[in-house]
Design a protein that fits this description.
The protein is built from 10 helices and 13 strands. By secondary structure, the protein is α/β, with parallel strands linked by helices. An 8-stranded mixed sheet has the order 5-4-3-9-10-13-11-12, with helices on one face. The protein has a 3-stranded mixed sheet with strand order 6-8-7. It is globular.
């Protein structure tokens, strides 16, 4: 880091925000994640995600972001649509999410410090890095270093709580928790079929569990007529059962 960058970082910490350009828009973001926000500004962090959200959302849309972390996708979506619901169970990440919402004066976002899972319960979660607040915290790692107890709600409980809104699009990126959550959303997805931008993490499961877990996901996703992979190619859902999909993380866009 050169002198100019060091000065900017120091000044950002004093004033309480760091300048970020995200998909062409300027934001004020927390100064504790400067290296991440620099990646965002340089277009090196998931540019396809911003493009997908642009295509899914309009000014009347309602967006649900499951697995929000510190809020990059929420900040972007809030500028595109009427209302955003978002969930982040990690209390450290949630603190930064609230800070970023406040810095950008976003009043159309309703944040929840919860996890969505298969039932209403308390559960433990941790990150493989042993640090709270990072982007890899997962319910699949209940006993890792730095683990913490978080409240979980089922989809139906949360959906009733917020008054059963007509959701236009859902982004789900919850580090393996999708394998518990998605099967419980099958009836809702069948009836409503919102656009679904889904990150799957089968590689985080034990090898004997991967095929069965992915098959349950494929069965749920049959309600969608079109699926695109993270390269933007249209694929069949059966592709998710192939070895290359079973053993790695992948993101998929499902459209009715």
């Amino acid at each position: 880091m050169g002198p100019r960058e060091q000065l900017l970082e120091a000044w950002s910490r004093v004033r309480g925000w760091y300048p970020v350009t995200m998909a062409g828009r300027k934001y004020r973001c927390d100064p504790d994640h400067i290296s991440f926000w620099d990646r965002v500004s340089e277009g090196d962090w998931e540019p396809q995600t911003f493009t997908i959200l642009d295509n899914l959302l309009d000014q009347e849309a309602v967006y649900c972001d499951i697995g929000t972390w510190i809020g990059p996708t929420v900040l972007h979506a809030a500028m595109q649509c009427r209302k955003v619901y978002c969930m982040e169970p990690d209390r450290v990440a949630y603190m930064y999410l609230l800070q970023n919402l406040k810095l950008n004066q976003l009043e159309n976002v309703v944040p929840f410090n919860i996890a969505l899972s298969s039932s209403n319960m308390l559960s433990r979660m941790a990150s493989p890095r042993g640090k709270r607040g990072d982007s890899m915290t997962s319910l699949l790692r209940p006993e890792g270093s730095g683990n913490t107890e978080v409240p979980c709600l089922s989809w139906l409980t949360w959906f009733d709580l917020v008054g059963q809104p007509e959701i236009t699009a859902i982004k789900m990126d919850i580090e393996g928790g999708e394998f518990k959550l998605l099967p419980t959303m099958e009836n809702y997805l069948c009836e409503s079929r919102p656009g679904l931008y889904l990150s799957l993490h089968p590689h985080l499961l034990r090898m004997p569990e991967r095929y069965a877990a992915m098959q349950r996901v494929v069965d749920v996703l049959q309600v969608y007529s079109t699926c695109y992979d993270d390269m933007g190619r249209e694929i069949s859902l059966e592709t998710l059962m192939e070895e290359q999909a079973i053993n790695r993380a992948g993101s998929y866009l499902l459209l009715p």
